[in-house]
Write a structure and sequence with these properties.
The complex is a heterodimer of chains A (326) and B (317). Chain A is of the alpha/beta class. Chain A has two domains: 184 residues, Thiamin diphosphate (ThDP)-binding fold, Pyr/PP domains (Rossmann fold); 128 residues, Rossmann fold (3-Layer(aba) Sandwich), CATH 3.40.50.920. In chain A, the strands form three sheets. A seven-stranded mixed β-sheet of chain A has the order 3-2-4-5-7-6-12, sandwiched between helices. In chain A, helix 2 links the parallel strand 2 and strand 3. Chain A is globular, with a radius of gyration of 19 Å. By secondary structure, chain B is an alpha/beta fold. Chain B has a six-stranded parallel β-sheet, with helices on both faces. A two-stranded antiparallel sheet of chain B has the order 5-6. Classes of the chains: A alpha/beta (326), B alpha/beta (317). Chains A and B meet through helix 3 and helix 11 of A and loops of B. Thiamine diphosphate sits at the interface of chains B and A.
Chain lengths: 326, 317
């Protein structure tokens, strides 16, 4: 099996889908010729292979990039547009939240908008809060959008292929730290459906529900706890919308304990949704209160000691799990 | 305001040496976390515009901000400490290089969201107008930022309400890896002013005296209540977008050509020719500036780190 970073896996998916379907094109800032001439990045080399008609470098114009995707998709193309960093998505959000998410509904189900918005995200690169703000809860809150946040390169490849073939608008959020960590990725053409969560590690004592980069943190914590005789089940959501309620509930009914882990800030974070789901549907099986481990409710600070304080770490997870095990 | 050309030279030299140090530290040491964005080659814009500003005048800056900050009189020590992420920095380590605010000198916002500062400048100018204060706002942004919707909305509103703001567009030929022709059909970004009924002028951004004159004129226009001006400063970014940029798209001959138009060398030559500056005096200026930069590094280096929990401070009042 090949070892790829998340960025390389994304590139493989983009490339294969572009070869498979000529209606697929990519657009965004610096995706053809960028300031980082680095083969590890998700769109590196696509311009050379597919040419400037299908690999569109755009001006710094997020609203127009998003609108381009909305308009092109209703005409039958399959745009995959990139928003460089999650905070800049706010500029694109009118087109995505007010339009992409709603126009099919407003057409009475007659039109479709098969577009993908790829967004880079995540703290831990010293770029401060205007580059590192995780906003997945914003988009997961909007009916009409599907929201994908892969935690491994292998998932990223299969999920992105499905996202591109999906007839709905899909928000595909890639944590940048995962672009530095190569992991095994199957070489063949495969897809992973949007919806099902994946149990990355089975266990009996406590369920950790997480996604994206925090998957690694959860698995590391689970590994350490295993040595102390604590068995952790790690559920990787992979997609926030649609949400795989069954897998979450089944796991919590088995373990009786839930810890939700995400890097985004706490209040209004998607972790609250998971906690509410379990409170509504598995309350009687809970042996302990639900626990959330998240970033605190602050913007991402620049300085390293404070940035590290912001990002949930293994110790936070281990302590959190121990606290609910009592 | 009396023009002191030696001060212009000193200001440009200060920016150059300060940022050279930043680049060196960023490449050769672990002292600086994350990317480093500098304005080498563009110093005349910050220094020339900065020289027309009074303490009460406001700057709204962008990701390429060190020159704007220094030209407004910000303390190099506090900038350096912020960039090091130290507790003594302008923003206690919360901002880093990308978002330094120095309200002490009325640099009220540095935003790294491209185009994000332009509407804010409309607001600060509105406040000056509302309070009938005799001060102006300068908003610095790049050629690339003028492609954002925020630019167009902000210029229209500022013009409609005759607000005292100078839109200083630093056309440094690139927006990320895109050359200007690759991101816009207009030859001069100043032409975009026509659409909003305000004057748009093109100025040699490497000639600090012309920069100064143009900013003075725009400031007078603001203060007489006639409203904003868009000034496009034609200049060039010698280095890449940031220290992480290998400049694969930037032709070496082009860089060399622009280096010959160095704003500092140009003014220096003029001043020597005019007999205002001697070699010895220049050397002394250099020494003073280099020493101040070293002192800033020492201050930043010896300053304490913030405590991790300090992250929780400063969000609400
Ligand atoms: C809204 C937004 N989109 C994209 C970026 C990424 N980005 C940072 S600087 C830059 C180029 C800006 O070019 P320009 O405005 O000409 O300023 P310069 O860097 O040349 O000084 C881009 C695209 C950003 N910071 N903000
Ligand atoms: Mg530029």
């Amino acid at each position: 099996m090949q070892n790829l970073t998340l960025g390389e896996a994304v590139k493989q998916a983009l490339r294969e889908e572009m070869l498979r379907d000529e209606n697929v094109f990519v657009a965004g800032e610096g995706i053809g010729v960028g300031i980082h001439n680095n083969p590890k990045l998700p769109t590196h080399g696509l311009l050379e292979e597919f040419g400037p008609e299908r690999v569109k470098d755009t001006p710094v114009s997020e609203a127009a990039i998003a609108g381009l995707a909305v308009g092109a998709s209703v005409m039958g193309l399959r745009p995959v547009v990139e928003i460089m960093f999650n905070p800049f998505f706010t500029i694109a959000s009118d087109q995505i939240i007010n339009h992409a998410a709603k126009l099919r509904y407003l057409s009475g189900g007659k039109s479709k908008f098969p577009l993908v918005v790829r967004i880079k995200t995540g703290a831990g690169i010293g770029a401060g809060c205007q580059h590192s703000h995780n906003l997945e809860a914003w988009v997961a809150h909007c009916p009409g959008l599907k929201v994908v946040m892969p935690g491994t390169p292998a998932d990223a490849k299969g999920l992105l292929k499905t996202a591109i073939r999906d007839d709905n608008p899909v928000i595909f959020i890639e944590d940048m730290i995962l672009n530095f960590i190569p992991m095994p990725v199957p070489e063949e053409d495969y897809t992973i459906p949007l919806g099902p969560a994946d149990i990355k590690k089975p266990g009996d004592d406590v369920t950790v529900v997480t996604w994206s980069k925090m998957l690694g943190t959860a698995l590391n914590a689970a590994g350490k706890l295993e040595q102390q005789g604590i068995s952790v089940e790690v559920v990787d959501l992979r997609t926030l919308a649609p949400l795989d309620e069954d897998t979450i509930l089944k796991s919590v009914r088995k373990t009786g304990r839930l810890l939700v882990l995400h890097e985004a800030t706490r209040t209004g974070g998607f972790g609250g949704e998971i906690a509410a789901l379990v409170a509504e549907k598995a309350f009687n099986q809970l042996k302990a209160p639900v626990k959330r481990i998240t970033a605190p409710d602050i913007p991402v600070p620049y300085s390293k000691p404070m940035e590290q304080f912001y990002i949930p770490n293994e110790d936070n997870v281990i302590n959190g799990i121990k606290s609910i095990l009592g | 305001m009396h023009l002191n050309k030696l001060n212009l030279l000193r200001s440009m030299l200060q920016i150059r040496r300060f940022e050279e140090k930043l680049e060196q530290l960023s490449r050769e040491t672990e002292k600086i976390y994350g990317m480093m964005i500098v304005s080498t080659g563009q110093e005349a814009v910050a220094s020339g515009v900065g020289a027309v500003l009074d303490p009460a005048d406001v700057i709204i800056s962008n990701h390429r901000s060190h020159g704007h900050l220094l030209a407004k009189g910000a303390d190099p020590k506090l900038i350096m400490a912020e960039i090091f992420g130290k507790a003594t920095g302008y923003n206690k380590g919360k901002s880093g290089t990308l978002h330094i605010a120095a309200p002490e000198v009325n640099v009220l916002c540095t935003t790294t969201v491209v185009g994000g500062g332009i509407p804010i400048a409309v607001g600060t100018a509105f406040a000056s107008h509302y309070k009938q204060q005799k001060n102006v706002t300068v908003c610095f942004f790049g050629d690339g930022a003028s492609d954002e919707g925020s630019f167009h909305e902000a210029l229209n509103l500022a013009s409609l309400w005759n607000l005292p703001v100078i839109f200083a567009c630093e056309n440094n030929v690139y927006s990320g890896a895109q050359r200007v022709e690759e991101h816009s059909k207009v030859k001069n970004f100043a032409d975009r002013a026509i659409a909003y009924g305000m004057p748009g002028i093109v100025v040699d951004g490497n000639n600090v005296l012309e920069v100064y004159q143009s900013a003075m004129k725009a400031k007078e226009r603001c203060l007489s209540g006639e409203g904003p001006t868009l000034i496009e400063y034609k200049t060039y970014r010698w280095g890449g977008h940031s220290t992480h940029d290998q400049q694969s798209y930037q032709p070496q001959e082009e860089i060399e050509l622009w280096k010959k138009l160095c704003p500092i060398e140009q003014l220096k030559a003029t001043l020597i020719k005019e007999g205002v500056l001697g070699q010895e005096q220049y050397q002394q200026m250099e020494n003073e500036i280099k020493q101040a930069v070293e002192e800033a590094v020492k201050f930043a280096d010896e300053s304490p780190w913030p405590q991790p929990e300090d992250a929780m401070e400063d969000i609400y009042i």
